[in-house]
Amino acid sequence: MRGIDGVDLVVVVDDGSTDDTAEIAFTAGAHVIRHPFNIGIGGAVQSGYQYALDRCYDVAVQVDGDGQHDARYIPELLQMLRSDPRLNMVSGSRFIGDGEVGYQSSATRRMGIRIFSGVLSRITGRAVTDPTSGFRMTDRRGIELFARDYPHDYPEVEAVLMLHHHRLVAAEVPVRMRERTTGNSSINSGRSVYYMIKVLLAILLGLLRARPTVEAGDAAPVAAGQSL
Fold first, then answer.
1. Are 52 and 167 within 8 A, CB to CB?
2. What is the 3-state secondary structure (H, E, C) of 54-101?
3. pLDDT score for 7
4. Which SS3 state, helix, strand or coil, does residue 138 take?
5. Residues in the chain with pLDDT < 50?
6. What whole-number distance in Å separates Cα of residue 144 and Cα of residue 105?
7. Coil vs helix vs strand at 15
8. What secondary structure does DSSP assign to 150-169, as a single string?
9. Domain 61-208 CATH (choose: 3.90.550.10, 3.40.50.300, 3.90.1750.10, 3.40.50.280)
């Protein structure tokens, strides 16, 4: 799909859906990865990065399928990524910029985000304002890392930590998030506290776990594209 400047390929990961997701996406012109059954958000995202790695992409954009992420910000993410050769990932943050943050989640979830933000900022030594944002752009090294090793449960926060431990560099750009237009969040108000505790434990374990070495690939860079 070439409707967005700089994007030459859209990939939809159909994680064992029971509706017409795959058919609708294919009809719209997207490439579709179909899982025979649901393996969860982490596995679905990793499939997208594996697809990008196999096809030698040097830039991949991760966009949630619930309508919250506005793809019109993709050129801004790409501009930031290309502005500094040290950068390996750029995330869209609703908590920086002019204060127009758009859609907000529940108070409990916002509290959790602030906790994760403080912990990750302390660990990484940089400001991490929106650690649960799934709107992310990675370069070739980021693709290689996430294709080979990606958290599978509540992955966004752990992925920030993983990137830091591999000495890859991340930054944020301001974006506006929209209200979900389809699907239901797996983290409702009753599960928010459980989610916070589990993610904090995952961060602790992430500080201790062995991590595979990710080497820079030999493939020549190609046009920027969206995978996931």
1. no
2. HCCCCEEEECCCCCCCCHHHHHHHHHHHHHCCCEEEEEEECCCCCCCC
3. 66
4. strand
5. 1-4, 217-227
6. 32
7. strand
8. ---SSHHHHHHHHHHHTT-E
9. 3.90.550.10
Residue 53 near residue 147, CB atoms below 8 Å: yes
Dihedral sign computed on CA atoms, order 22, 23, 28, 33: positive
In angstroms, the CA 209 to CA 47 distance is: 22
Residue 143 in contact with residue 48, Cβ under 8 Å? no
Q: Are 72 and 60 in contact (CB under 8 A)?
A: no
Query: Strands 87-93, 169-174: parallel, antiparallel or unpaired by DSSP?
Result: parallel
Q: How many helices (H) and strands (E) does the chain have?
A: 7, 6
- Residue 14: which H helix or E strand, with range? strand 11-15
Question: How many whole angstroms separate alpha carbon 199 and alpha carbon 184?
Answer: 20
> What single DSSP character describes residue 102?
B
- In this predicted model, what pLDDT tens digit does every residue of 132-156 receive, in sequence order? 999 999 999 999 999 999 988 778 9
Domain ranges of the chain: 61-208
pLDDT value of residue 57: 93
d(CA 142, CA 114): 25
**Token output for 199:** 């993610």
Phi, psi of 204 (to 5 degrees): -60, -45
Q: Cα(136)–Cα(123) distance, rounded to whole angstroms?
A: 20
Q: The tokens 């434990």 sit on which residue? A: 201
